[in-house]
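Chains adopt folds. We examine one example:
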Amino acid sequence: MKESEDRQSVLNLVDASNLRDLNARFSFVSYCTKLWQRRSFINADARSRALSSGRETFLGNVWILLNPLLQVLLYVLVFGIVLKTNRGIENFVGFLVIGVTFFGFITQGLTSGSGLLQSSKSMITSFSFPKAAVPLSRSLRNCYDTIVPALVAIVIALAFEPSFKVSWTLLLTIPIFCLMAIFSTGLMLIAARMTTFIPDTKSLFNLVNRGLFFLSGIFFSVERFDGHIVVQNVMTYNPVYQYLTAMREVVMSQSSLSLGNWAYITVWSVATFILGLVYFWGGEERYVNHL
């Protein structure tokens, strides 16, 4: 009898009022509110993991800079010298370095999002929190990792310009970079949910990534396909192509974007992010059981 009373007294000391079911799903507004309340954690987690990809290598963080530069050198050799895709492009090195660097940043949404929740299984199955914090933190980490390569890409593009000058349009690289990040985050949210419930979609996203690589004008200009209207239209309406073109315009051509171009890339960024967040939220209560 005394043992039962002692056990009951211990249970009475436990306050379960703030405990939450790991599978709970809040309303979308409450979900967004809880994400905002955890913004400090999301940022701290992203900063702690940023620039960590080369920690176990001899050159360390230097690889964050070397990797895109070596890719550019390879593409200059293959596409510029061997395949001659540089015809009609005055500053091919600048054209290519901006394409390679920022294409990689945008499509990290697909590559990093694939299998992301599985790799964060221990945290997701241990704590009750809005699971979208995981892809949001990863996306922010990608931003931190890309800042230095992006700056180097811009400097190289300017250095190879025949008439080098510093223009106010360089300031426009900041909002364009932010729009790229928002778009990439939306892709990551979609990829994270799909690969959790349907692991086979990892292969699909790899295929999509390869397709985007050849249809985003990374190493050739859309004018190269003047006689192929379908290919030209596919590239022109491809948002990734539009982001890269926007960055090249403000850096290399040093001209501002038209209102229509700003509207196009802004709508794509906002719409993709909202769609991704709503889609990810829709599977919130099932993530724990599938990991």
Remarks:
- The two ends are 42 Å apart (CA to CA).
- The CA atoms of residues 183 and 269 lie 4 Å apart.
